[in-house]
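Running this now, will post back.
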Amino acid sequence: MGATPEVGAPPDADAAAAAEAARAAQPLWALLPPSARARYVRRAAVAMLDELDELADVLADEAGWPCTHLVVSELLPAVRGLHALADEGPAALADRRLSSRAAVWRRSVSIQAPAGVIGLAGPSASPWHEPALEAAAALLAGNGVLLAAGPAAAAQRLRGVFLRAGIPGELIVPVRDAGAVCDRVTRLAPPTRMGTLLVLRGAPRAAVVDAAVWAAFAGSGRHAAAAGRLIVSRTAAPGLAEAIAEQAAKLRVGDPRDPATDVGLVAPTVTTSRAAFDSPPPGPVLAIVEAANDDEAISLASTGGRDGVVSVWTADRERGERIARSLPAAAVWVGRHAVPAPAVPDRLARHVAPRRLETRSRRAPAAMRLPTTQDVVEIQGALAEARHGRESRRWPALRKGVAALLRAARRQR
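Update: finished.
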């Protein structure tokens, strides 16, 4: 597939030249079966683990997140995600039969073909996890990748991880802007709305406090599931705002590279301001509003829009699931607050071009042809009535179809 460039390829590499090189190498890469490409993805996970601490320091400098949070919430989940892609990806990329197995004369399948050269564009709320998994998914699907998402140093280090896994350098190149030269662009934009915690009757108080502090202040309040709002029913957890503020005050603010740091150079804030609740400011700020009852709390949580995440906290899990289904949010959890991540087939679907392939037996009767005779019309109509029509009309239709078939056969003599 050509010579592999050095790991330190500049992040502002000419996008057109990079796309041309990727387009030249991609067809040969796509010839490998998905199971073979999956082996490279597993090797990338190993390479990532090999330099875990160094990557955490680089990302701490770039993103300003504490290195401890980066390891737990970005790097290790990326390792697990790469293995999930390698384990489940080949099956998700396999041909899918479309025709019935009872079809005698033809076989129709859906092929998950590579899209070509994929551009990954940012900015992403995740400095490593999402760019790494999207790049891996695009490569696993048989594409080349131009990486224009996330911090520049992180993109360069991500490329190095894939190169050490053995993936040709032409297939993944950091660039400043990939949109105009790619066959497809996948955008890793951060959510436009902060997440919400909805605390209802019977909610486990201690678990809510821990979840709220993590959701609001981890990653300096800028991660993909960052929460800026907490809605609590009046009788659900009295004194909850004070308990969260007390725990937030214990967080250590400092140098992101210092393992003792909880929040990087920005002090966490807990407020009961309605203005901050209606328009949560960026950064580590949690606005808490008390609702009169559960119904009012659910109504408030429903105003967040679909581009946000919500966690529902209640003693009754089944009730929590019913409420979760009614909320207009991109992702909803019951009893936890976490980072949303698409399933492997959904992630891979962003990077393939489904195509239909149909083959017919050489002994199959002629398909559509002109001129269309009345016998053909009657035969096709009889088959449709026999398979899908009313029961009272099936036998008459079959008799009519057989008669048409016999007439057509006599004409062929």
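The chain has a mean pLDDT of 88. More later if anyone needs it.
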